[in-house]
Design goal:
Rossmann fold, Arc Repressor Mutant, subunit A, 2 domains, two-stranded parallel sheet, transferase, PRTase-like, glycosyltransferase, PRTase_dom
Length: about 220
C-alpha cells in the first residue's frame, strides 16, 4: 500500500527569489557574515547565491547526514566528514541550509561550528517548517503544513524514489498510470515528457524495465 505524502516541486526561480528575500532579512538585521557555511547537500546552491547577495567571498561546506531518502531520516543527524575549521575563530559565521524540517541538521551543525570559537554564529534557511525543533535566526518562508519540497537539485533523486514507492503497489504500469499515481498519492502534477525522461534514467540505473503487453508500453520493477 502506497503511503501518501504531500510533495511540491520548486523551480530555480523559486530558489533564487527565496534566497534573495532571505538576504534582505539578514541585511535588515545588520548581520554581516565573514564566512558562509553551506550544509551539504541542500544548502550548497542557496549558500553560493547568498555569497553573491551579501558580497561574501569566504564559502565553505559541511556535510551533514540526516535524510537518507525522500521523506525518511536517520534517528540523529551527524557530521559525516568532521574537518578542522580553526580559521573560523573570531569570525561572524552564517550557517545556511535549504530548509529546516526536524531541525536536527542545523542543531548539530551549529554545535560543531561553535567548537572553533567564531565571534558569532547565525543560522538561516530558505524555508522553515513550524514543527521543526530548531528555529533558524533567519528564514524566507514559513511553512505551516508539512510538505516534502522537491528542489531543482534533486528532481531526479526524489521523483525516482516516489515512482519506486508507487510501483510497489502493482506489477505493471503505463506512463499515464504513473503520472496519475504521483498526483493521487504525492500531490504532484508531472509532465509526461519529463516523466518519460525520469523512467529512462531509472531504466539506465536498472531500477525499472520497459515491457510491451499486447502492443502497449508498460513499466515494471527491474
Amino acid at each position: 500500500m502506497v503511503q501518501p505524502m504531500k510533495c511540491k516541486y520548486l523551480t530555480l526561480e523559486d530558489v533564487y527569489n527565496m534566497t534573495k528575500k532571505l538576504a534582505s532579512k539578514i541585511k535588515a538585521a545588520g548581520f554581516k557574515p565573514d564566512t558562509i557555511v553551506g550544509l551539504a547537500r541542500g544548502g550548497w546552491i542557496p549558500a553560493r547565491l547568498m555569497c553573491d547577495f551579501l558580497g561574501v567571498v569566504d564559502l565553505i561546506s559541511l556535510k551533514v547526514e540526516h535524510w537518507i531518502e525522500t521523506g525518511k531520516t536517520k534517528d540523529e543527524a551527524i557530521i559525516k566528514y568532521p574537518v578542522k575549521l580553526d580559521h573560523l575563530a573570531g569570525k561572524k559565521v552564517l550557517l545556511l541550509d535549504d530548509i529546516t524540517d526536524t531541525g536536527k541538521s542545523l542543531m548539530v551543525s551549529k554545535r560543531y561550528v561553535e567548537q572553533f570559537n567564531p565571534a558569532e554564529v547565525k543560522t538561516a534557511t530558505m524555508q522553515f517548517i513550524v514543527t521543526s525543533k530548531f528555529k533558524p535566526d533567519f528564514y524566507a518562508e514559513e511553512v505551516r503544513e508539512w510538505t516534502w519540497f522537491i528542489y531543482p537539485w534533486n528532481y531526479f533523486e526524489d521523483t525516482t524514489t516516489l515512482v519506486q514507492r508507487l510501483m510497489a503497489d502493482k506489477e505493471l504500469w503505463t506512463l499515464e498510470e504513473i503520472k496519475e499515481g504521483l498526483r493521487k498519492y504525492f500531490e504532484i502534477d508531472v509532465d509526461l515528457n519529463w516523466l518519460r525522461e525520469v523512467m529512462s534514467v531509472m531504466e539506465e540505473r536498472k531500477q525499472v524495465k520497459k515491457v510491451v503487453v499486447e502492443g502497449v508500453e508498460k513499466w515494471a520493477k527491474a
